[in-house]
């Protein structure tokens, strides 16, 4: 499988605040890769760096390669072209992909402006894609403005818009958080169906480990801006080795028997102050298994299988 996305030692900081620290990851053609972590661990900052659009004032280092081309090393014009041609993004707020006062049809046709197809063919392709993502009566939906569509329909339209340009890399940043549970299940089902026919790489960024377990091939667990564990979805979900991954799983609603809890458990403690990251393991202050070396020395990256690795003093190879 060819590597579509290759990230090497990527760091992003806002002044003294280190939001993303030395992240390395890959996504190959046909693969769905999940990046999971709780709020504030650096997911959005990482997502912005993956598309070469960091927030103003952020400082970036490292490499983000899209099919070999280093996004961070090229001038803005090159990045813009790459984003338009080869990378598409699905945001939590589907409205951010659209102009609210233009019809959906006009926008879906315009998104294909680089295509050699006629206007009529682009229209037909847009309608077919809307049907594919489950919009009832796509012909009618094409004539509607976005504010006339329901939240679920907008999210489906945003997915259709992203796929219309056949991107090599599709990045979904918290694609389901804004939706209710039933709709979330439908969207997951849809993305799962699409992965079999879409041959690019899909990267899904979420705080919800259940999404990752159901949808992804491989998972990276992010804590305090670092990848603390990586592995296949099966390894991460059923045989987590990092205490933070274990804690995330214990908090996941999918692991709780229906009706058994009133409030979701949360991981006790809070993220460290990232303007002064701890000298040892960043998770040690919240870790029930921490020993003194965990507080003093940076943890080693321990390879536990061909595909699984954890950043932890307590994990045996
Ligand atoms: N534009 C910014 N300027 C300064 N600090 C920022 C900026 N954006 C994010 N941060 C800080 O960087 C850290 C990581 O934030 P980020 O939004 O990337 O995390 P996240 O995991 O996406 O969180 P959430 O799920 O709540 O969006 C946080 O401490 C946050 O306060």
Topology:
Blueprint: E1 3-14, E2 17-28, E3 32-36, H1 43-50, E4 58-66, E5 69-70, H2 76-86, E6 87-90, H3 104-110, H4 119-132, H5 138-142, H6 151-164, E7 169-173, H7 181-197, E8 201-206, H8 209-215, E9 218-223, E10 226-232, H9 233-238, H10 243-250, H11 292-296, E11 301-303, E12 309-311
Parallel strand pairs: 3-8, 3-9, 6-7, 7-8
Antiparallel strand pairs: 1-2, 1-4, 4-5, 9-10, 10-12, 11-12
The protein binds adenosine-5'-triphosphate.
The site of adenosine-5'-triphosphate has 14 residues, from strand 2 and helix 1.
Question: Biggest β-sheet: count, sense, barrel?
Answer: 8 strands, mixed
Indicate the low-confidence ranges by residue numbers: none
Chain oligomer state: single chain
CATH class categorisation of the domain at 3-85 and 203-311: Alpha Beta
Shape field = globular
Number of helices: 11
Bound molecules: adenosine-5'-triphosphate
Structural class assignment: alpha/beta
Order of helices and strands: EEEHEEHEHHHHEHEHEEHHHEE
The CATH topology of the domain at 3-85 and 203-311 is: Rossmann fold
Give the % helix: 25-40%
The named CATH superfamily of the domain at 3-85 and 203-311: P-loop containing nucleotide triphosphate hydrolases
Feature tags:
317 residues, alpha/beta, Rossmann fold, 8-stranded mixed beta sheet, 4-stranded antiparallel beta sheet, 32% helix, 23% strand, globular, binds adenosine-5'-triphosphate, nucleotide-binding, AAA+_ATPase, Oligopep_ABC_C, cell membrane
């Amino acid at each position: 499988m060819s590597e579509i996305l290759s990230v090497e030692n990527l760091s992003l900081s806002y002044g003294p605040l280190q939001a993303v620290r030395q992240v390395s990851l890959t996504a190959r053609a046909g693969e769905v890769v999940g990046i999971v972590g709780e709020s504030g661990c650096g997911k959005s900052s990482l997502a912005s760096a993956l598309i070469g659009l960091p927030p103003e004032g952020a400082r970036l280092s490292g490499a983000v390669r899209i099919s070999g081309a280093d996004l961070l090393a090229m001038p803005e014009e090159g990045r813009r072209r790459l984003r338009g041609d080869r990378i598409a993004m699905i945001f939590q707020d589907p409205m951010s992909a659209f102009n609210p006062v233009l019809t959906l049809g006009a926008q879906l046709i315009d998104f294909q402006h680089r295509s050699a197809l006629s206007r009529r063919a682009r229209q037909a392709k847009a309608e077919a894609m809307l049907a594919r993502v489950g919009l009832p009566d796509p012909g009618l939906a094409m004539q509607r403005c976005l504010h006339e569509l329901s939240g679920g329909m907008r999210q489906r339209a945003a997915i259709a818009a992203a796929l219309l340009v056949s991107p090599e890399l599709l990045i979904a940043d918290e694609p389901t958080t804004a939706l209710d549970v039933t709709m979330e299940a439908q969207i997951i089902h849809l993305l799962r169906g699409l992965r079999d026919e879409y041959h690019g790489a899909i990267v899904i960024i979420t705080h919800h480990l259940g999404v990752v377990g159901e949808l992804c091939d491989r998972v990276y667990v992010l804590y305090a801006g670092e990848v603390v564990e990586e592995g296949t979805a099966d390894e991460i979900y059923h045989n987590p080795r990092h205490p933070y991954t274990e804690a995330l799983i214990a908090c996941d609603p999918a692991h709780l028997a229906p009706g058994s809890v009133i409030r979701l458990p949360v991981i006790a403690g809070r993220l460290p102050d990232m303007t002064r990251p701890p000298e040892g393991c960043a998770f040690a202050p919240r870790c029930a298994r921490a020993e003194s070396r965990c507080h003093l020395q940076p943890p080693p990256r321990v390879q536990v299988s061909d595909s699984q690795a954890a950043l932890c003093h307590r994990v045996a190879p």
